Amino acid sequence: MSNYLIGKAELLTYPIKAPTRDNPGKAHPYTLSEVRGWLIPELREANENFSALTQHEAPNDVAVLKLTLHPAYIAKSYFPRALLGQTGLVAVGSKTVRIKPRKRSSARMPETVDTTQLLIAGRRSNLRALPAFAEQLREGTQEALDFAEIEEISPMTEADRIKPLTGGGRVFEVGLHLLPGQSSRNALGDFLVHARECGFVVNEHYLFEAGALVFVAVEGSEDNLSALARYSLARVVREMPKLRGVRPAMRGAAVAVPFYLPPAEVLSLEPKVAVLDGGLPENHVLHPFVRKYFESDPSAQNVPGYTEHGLGVTSALLFGPIAPGAKAEKPYALVDHHRVLDAESDQEDPYELYRTLGHVETVLLSRQYQFINLSLGPDLPFEDTDIHAWTAVIDNLLSDGETLLAVAAGNNGERDATAGLNRIQVPADGVNTLAVGAADSASSDWNRASYSAVGPGRVPGRRKPDLVAFGGSGNEYFHHAAPGAVPALAANLGTSFAAPLALRSAVGIRAALGSDIYPLTARALLLHACEFNENHDKDHVGWGRVTTNLQDLIACDDHSARIIYQGKLAPGKFLRAPLPLPEQALTGSVNVKATFCFASPTDPQDASAYTKAGLIVAFRPHEGKRKDGAKHPQTFSLFPSSEWRDEAELRADLGKWETVLHGEHTFRGSSLLRPIFDIHYNARDAGAPTSHAESIPYALIVTVSAPKFENIHQAILDAHEVLQVIEPKVRITIPGS
Question: Which of 147, 233, 408, 601 could be stapled to 495 by a disulfide with Cβ–Cβ 3.0 to 4.6 Å?
Fold first, then answer.
């Protein structure tokens, strides 16, 4: 008998008051008089730069200042709200920069460290008044304390905005800051005037708004790019990237071996699944398993290379890798295929990237699907300091947690590592996406495929790719259905096939267990059950290789129990989640493994504070172990980040702003007594504290393994009547059984 997932654990949770914490006080590295000594001259120099801007370069007389904080002040509670409010300035964005501060706040702080650089906008008259304002600040006021947090001040210039160019292009993308209350159309109107003066044409048809940024395509000479980038509210100017090559790496040639299709039925009709790709050829054998076929632009023609890719990706999602001469595995669900690439995308059209993003956005906005695969995107490694339009738009549409989007990490893993060209490609850097890299083998002896893009991701979003799946290699190809009216195989490799294989496991969970499992919970289960060992580099394989055996994802052996909590978290509140254990005392060693996943709203303009939600989780393993006078049991650092680390350490590690937390530890049975998780949802907006955040969806998976306890699964159910086994809604046949 299988021990299936134990659900409804969220019914055990209850709110608690915020635990009190000792506050020893902040060690401030600088005095007000010290920072005046270098910041006031820097302000005067910045104002000289701003005075040279023309009326069109500084729309509405607004310029942008770079305000770099000392690393001791990157927590949201130190946001300089009072200083900005008193000076008529507003923060329009932020980025993470690495600096060597003039003075370290503690001996533990490294000489060079990441910190936050705020981008501050204001009228030039207000900026000119700043030096005098700083001179008259009174010690001890909040404005003075804010000012003393600053490490450096400098103007934002065209050099900050222009990304490295390869040369020869005439189409560029520009990200523009939106001022508070400003519409994208008003912002674009001001920019149009400046762009025309610089000899550029703005293509208003391709415009994407995300957070407080608006992205637009422009066309003109590279020689005039520096003049264009003097526009004060421009955030980023880069060459328009090309789409990744989606034609199969091996050209998808059929091999001289057939395969056999399974019966024309699927495990469940409940999951709604889509592939966004290059279409399907006229002749193929997947018709019984493709529910609907859509063309985003019906007037455009197919491209054979794109349709081969689309067929391979769809085959991988339906069947997984197919063994030559064998019968393909039974699909878990029917699949809709949306052709988002076509002949228009193939015509060296410099706007193909934005056109394709528009197609992707339309499908996501329809809210039709719980599971979507995207094995394409810009041929562009993500940037630490700026969020790309693809990532910003897609992350925003996934922030409700109701859709699981698997994204191929990219096949650029063998490019120049020194230049960062081998890092995961946009939009796999999204915090609400499942970024999938490729493993080189389906066997137990696997490693990252050499072509698979690597991490780490940005902060937050450090653990990228999220996981890997078999994607094929030169020694072990990924076989999928080839074009044609009879079943034949094509040999391929690439993260394009790893992504749908990983998503297939998530679809299988939903198909087997039904609507009791949300897409966010399916993602958490995939990460929770990943195969990982110390020989693997976490920056290469994320949390590990996905488990493709459905039984391993939804069931445990007699000595283990896998428990699911899923629900919503209210901002600023503390939730206590008891970990259900048997009434009988546990003996011997007991392993506790936990995975939190949550979906987060994002601030694309704030690369250093991209996620608007974060979790602080304290695990308290033993009710009776308390410090003298303490109201709550002692904590144990189950996760890589701990409530005792300072903000810089949290940001450098898997900190509280990460959307995935995972950890495990083996305890003595006697050290576990009514254990609990205390969960605090920390909210911010544009990097600052906020009282207007919305609830966020979360999933918590905990596996308790006790080798010396027979049938711990049933014992937990007996002890907690509110819990329920999530039984499969369909009959599951285990491959090979």
Answer: 408
